[in-house]
Each structure stands twice: as structure tokens, then as C-alpha cells.
Amino acid sequence: MPLSVKLDPRDVGLLVVDMQNGFCHPEGSRGQAFGADAVKNPQDIIPNVTKTIDLAHRLDIPVWFTQQVHYDDDVLRSRRRIPSHLERRGVKLELCRRGTWDAELLDEMKAIKEDRDEVVVKHRSSAFFQTTLEVELRMKDVQVLVVLGTTTSFCVDSTIRDAYARDFDVVVPAECVADSDDAAHAATLASIERFHGVVTDLPGLTAALDG
Predict the structure, then answer these.
(1) Which domain, by its residues, includes 27?
(2) The domain that contains 194 carries what CATH number?
(3) Residue 165 to residues 41, 68, 135, 161, 183: CA-CA distances in angstroms?
(4) In this structure, are residues 160 and 172 in contact, taking their beta carbons and an 8 Å threshold?
């Protein structure tokens, strides 16, 4: 899936969404609640994500990691009248609680993260919702946002929609995003390609940046 445009690395930022123990590690809260299959796809993309981060570092493209953090005393969640997507499945998931191993970035992300990279702590699905991400992107003069990570149909999708609404160009290398639901993953990629950005692959992204 080659890109039809050449990308100038000076215009580009890389956003790595929620590559955390709770979402991706077999011993994290999602893996414990739903089994190893629930984290297989996020586990499978780790090598592609690290390759893309390596590429960004080599080309001096700024990198952001998001870190989802939930509070035990989040009164906003307790006020909701409609059950959450997890409650509707009969699951109580203590996901990415503040100060826990579950909320930490995967060891593979910690190993590749450099001091110049940023971490955006978020409390809801979109990396833009009440965070400093937008102003940080503007300060770095980012126009094209390359988005990686999990979960394709929720946090990745929410972030991409918000990026599009803020007039960023969005690029998604398909083998660098993952979902526990293959159908939802495919449908979201189709929606991104139709409305909110372009879907490519890692060779296509590399050629567009470094060709």
C-alpha cells in the first residue's frame, strides 16, 4: 500500500497509542480477563511498532507515547446511567489503574523510548481529549500525524477522528495497529481510509519518508 505523496520528515510526528501492559501483555488486565487471544494482535504488532519508532528516531521525527491512566475514585464514570461496554459484557476490568504495573508502557516501549520522546497521559479514549497533545504537536510544527498502537476501533479511532477535526493529516500503517476484534479492526481501517486519513503499510510509509 504505497503512499501517493512524499512526506517531509520535518512535517511529521509519530504517535504510539496505549502500548501498555494492561492492553497488550498476557499478564495485564485485558489478558487476565479475556485470555491470551485478547492480546495476541497487540503482541504481534510490537516488532512493527518498534521498527517505526526506530525510523522516526533516525529521521529526527518527534515521537509521542500515550499512557492511559484510570483513577479508582473517578466520579464521572460512576455517574453514568448507561452501562459501559465492559459492563454490558459482564466484566469488571481494573484496567491501567494509576500507579500500577498495568498502566506502565510495555518493556519493549521503555527500551526504545528516548529522552527526547514525550509521554501524553490521558484518561479517556482520545489522546487529544483534555491533554496537551495538540499544543505539543503545534509547537513541533507537526502537520502529518502517523498513528500506531491499540485498540484500532476505540482509542486509535477516537484519536484519529480528533486529529482530523483539528486539520492534521493522518497516516496509519496497517500492520502497526491492532484490535482484539478482527472485524472491528478491518471496518475501522476502511473508515479511516474513506474519511479521516490514509492507510498504508510500513514499507509504504518508509518509502514516503525515506525514499
Answers:
(1) 9-210
(2) 3.40.50.850
(3) 28, 21, 14, 6, 25
(4) yes
In a domain, 4, yes or no: no
**1 inside domain:** no
What CA–CA distances, in Å, run from 82 to 86, 87, 157? 11, 9, 22
Is 142:12 a contact under the CB 8 Å cutoff? yes
Alpha helices in 8-118 (DSSP H): 21-24, 29-34, 37-44, 46-58, 75-78, 107-112
Tell me the per-residue pLDDT of 121-136, one tens digit each, with 9 for 90 and over.
999 999 999 999 999 9
170 in Cβ contact with 164 (< 8 Å) = yes
Tell whether 2 is covered by a domain. Answer: no
Contact predicate 181/153, CB 8 Å: yes
**Grid cell of 126 as nine digits:** 482520545
Global confidence as pTM? 0.92
- Is 142 buried (19+), middle (13-18) or exposed (0-12) by CB count in 10 A? buried
Q: What is the number of domains present in the chain?
A: 1
- How large is the angle between the packed helices 37-44 and 46-58, nearest 10 degrees? 30
* Inter-residue contact 3 to 174 (CB < 8 Å): no
133-185 pLDDT, tens per residue?
A: 999 999 999 999 999 999 999 999 999 999 999 999 999 999 999 999 999 99
Distance, CA of 55 to CA of 109 (rounded, Å): 14
CB-based contacts of 202: which residues, under 8 Å, 6+ apart?
48, 51, 52, 173, 175, 176
